[in-house]
Specification:
The protein has about 400 residues and is α/β, with parallel strands linked by helices. It has helices at about 5-15, 25-35, 35-40, 45-50, 55-65, 70-80, 130-145, 160-170, 190-200, 215-225, 240-245, 260-270, 285-290, 295-310, 320-335, 345-350, 365-385, 390-409, and strands at about 85, 105-110, 120-125, 150, 175, 200-205, 230-235, 255, 275-280. It has a 9-stranded mixed sheet with strand order 1-2-6-5-4-3-7-8-9, with helices on both faces.
């Protein structure tokens, strides 16, 4: 049961996050002048104006102290299954403290990502192809085998596939919402929403009851990026929210798989993710493993913060090196028991197939059409077997055959 002092401190943070017309930027100004939300709660109007706030903002803060609705809402929250956390509290994700505009309050169901374990975001198109969704699900499934936490936004398409792939392997996945955590959006994902809460976590910076609004999703994306050591983007358009997520942190490693050929994808990705690009691979790449080192750096910063503020997190219990060592151990065991295979698909491999055969140039339209249909079936069969490397080869071959058919038309 929560202690009275903890109850009060948490209430002050909840109150600060729920004052009308007082958002993150204004809260940041206040916390630069005052040491805690409690001091802001007890401050007079003149002191509040010294923080660079308008008279109207100062009035809103003063009047909110007497607002019984905020207190009633907090009491209802405490009695519900929804949990509230804030900077400095043990369960607040350490990674978020490093983003440019971290939230001053988080609401969640289930459990938040473990700061002591690596996390990867998998995001992408809402209008994804079946193949793209299978890629996302397979990636999530494979990563969760290594103890990697999967972060996404529970949107239809790639996000949904990533969450399901993780759950299929009994891994941890966290859905970051652009609404209150009591609202399932989209409604068609209610089953997934329920399953994630059971074994993973559903979180938001918006209070219960807040409905999804377009402007809230780009805001949500910065949290997805901030919680992750790497961002995987699958079948995203050049100006999509998925790429916004990846771009939010220019130092973040980017892993992309697109419906375009690999050459086009690499060029597009280099422009959108600051040149840090790694193509989709069928297993965890060395570069992905290296990004896990970032977890250690973030944890060191959080530990220093905890020590300075006398905080003893219960969540961080594992050794700092354990997460990486576990991954390296499992990877070495797999490498010793299996023959080495190509770690990533390249266009050179596709040239070994029919589309690169000189005879193709002399095919009739009907012959090309038959070859296209046959290649499409082979691609679909490879995807059903979850052999995405082979499926990607057939896909690029299919695109080349279709181009030849257009030239002859």
């Amino acid at each position: 049961m929560i202690k009275y002092d903890e109850f009060l401190e948490e209430y002050y943070w909840y109150w600060l996050n729920n004052i009308r017309n007082i958002g993150r930027r204004k809260i940041s100004k206040l916390l630069k002048r005052f040491d805690s939300p409690k001091e802001i709660y007890n401050a007079g109007s003149e002191y509040l104006k010294c923080c660079g706030l308008s008279c109207k903002d100062a009035e809103n803060i003063i009047s909110s102290v007497k607002d019984e609705q905020i207190y009633r809402d907090y009491n209802a929250l405490v009695k519900s299954s929804i949990k509230f956390t804030h900077p400095g509290k043990a369960d607040y994700p350490a990674q978020l403290m490093e983003i440019y505009d971290y939230p001053y309050g988080l609401y969640y169901n289930g459990k938040l990502p473990d700061s002591d374990k690596p996390s990867v975001a998998i995001v992408g198109s809402r209008q994804a192809s079946q193949y793209g969704m299978m890629v996302a699900a397979r990636l999530a499934y494979e990563m969760s085998s290594y103890g990697i936490q999967i972060i996404s936004g529970m949107a239809v398409g790639i996000d949904t596939a990533a969450h399901k792939g993780t759950l299929d392997n009994s891994g941890y996945t966290c859905a970051v919402l652009g609404s209150g955590v009591d609202i399932c959006y989209p409604a068609c994902n209610i089953g997934l929403f329920t399953d994630i809460k059971k074994t993973g976590g559903v979180m938001s910076e918006y209070p219960a009851g807040v409905k999804p609004v377009c402007g809230q999703f780009p805001e949500r994306n910065r949290l997805i990026s901030g919680l992750s050591d790497a961002v995987v983007v699958v079948e995203a358009r050049a100006k999509s929210g998925s790429l916004i997520t990846a771009v939010l942190d220019a130092d973040k490693e980017g892993f992309l798989r697109s419906h375009r050929s690999l050459t086009q994808t690499a060029g597009r990705a280099a422009r959108n993710v600051n040149g840090k690009v790694i193509m989709y691979a069928d297993r965890i790449t060395d570069s992905m493993r290296q990004t896990i080192d970032e977890t250690n750096r973030r944890r060191e910063k959080q530990l220093a913060y905890n020590e300075a503020h006398g905080i003893t997190p219960k969540q961080i219990t594992r050794s700092r090196a354990n997460a990486l060592l576990d991954i390296e151990k499992q990877s070495s065991q797999e490498n010793s028991s299996k023959p080495k295979e190509p770690r990533a698909y390249t266009e050179t491999e596709a040239q070994l197939h029919a589309a690169a055969d000189p005879v193709v140039q002399y095919m009739t339209k009907d012959q090309l059409q038959k070859s296209i249909e046959q290649t499409r079936k082979l691609m679909q069969e490879a995807a059903k077997k979850l052999d995405f490397i082979e499926a990607a080869q057939y896909r690029d071959e299919l695109l080349k055959l279709e181009e030849l058919l257009k030239e002859k038309s």
